[in-house]
Amino acid sequence: MPEPAVPRPQNDPLLRARALAAIRGERLVFHDVSFSLPPGGALLLVGPNGAGKSSLLRLLAGLTPPIAGELLWKGENALDDPPLHATRVCFVGHQDAIKPGLTVTDNLYLTGRWTNAEVLAALVSVNLEPFAALPARLLSSGQRRRLALARLALSAAPLWLLDEPTTGLDAASVRRLEARCAAYRAEGGMIVAATHLPLDLPAAQYLRLGGTNTQ
After folding, report:
1. Alpha helices, DSSP H only, in the chain?
2. Which residue range forms the structural domain that includes residue 24?
3. Mean pLDDT by 10 residues, the chain (215 residues)
4. What is the CATH number of the domain that holds 158?
5. ∠ at Cα 107 (106, 109), nearest 5°?
6. Is residue 45 part of a domain?
7. Assigned domain for 215 exists
8. Rounded to whole angstroms, how far apart are CA atoms 181 and 73?
9. 25, 55 in Cβ contact below 8 A?
10. Residue 116 forms part of a structural domain
11. Which of 196, 198, 200 minimizes the C-alpha distance to 53?
């Protein structure tokens, strides 16, 4: 099977952050964070625990407001219309957000009005189809993470926000995720991911929080 083509991002940014700052509790977690992403672009957030990677992802998802700076989508304030911005992003957080009392399949049906074929394809994409009827509480931690990542296959959002997506995954699952990310970017999708573990996103920018930023 040929590898997905490495994307060639367009020159004009679709997403732009300018001098963002955020607080958690009463603590300033980051400030003066700026970057831009064109279609097909990727940004890896790196830095120590507590540096604000998860906080930045939640801000980009529109879940928490910045205390300074602005987030632009096609040059317009992305957070002026939260319901519209929610359609632009697919956010897979550090917590898997799995309902243990529901089956694997039913957990995916909760995320939207999907056909049986769409849900099955999503499970196949993470190699979970043998467990479709199993209660989610019986899944291992790695399987729970794969179920959370199956939501990516059901999303048409142009921006993926991934918080530690490889945690708990075996090597084969990481390779599947990397291939899916490459195909998504080749179609113009953008990715912002926070990770302590290797995730191969060719030509990705790097943004270090809690230290010097590099791109």
Report:
1. 53-60, 82-88, 104-109, 116-125, 141-149, 171-186
2. 15-208
3. 48 90 89 96 91 94 95 96 95 88 94 90 95 95 94 94 93 94 97 90 93 45
4. 3.40.50.300
5. 60
6. yes
7. no
8. 21
9. no
10. yes
11. 196
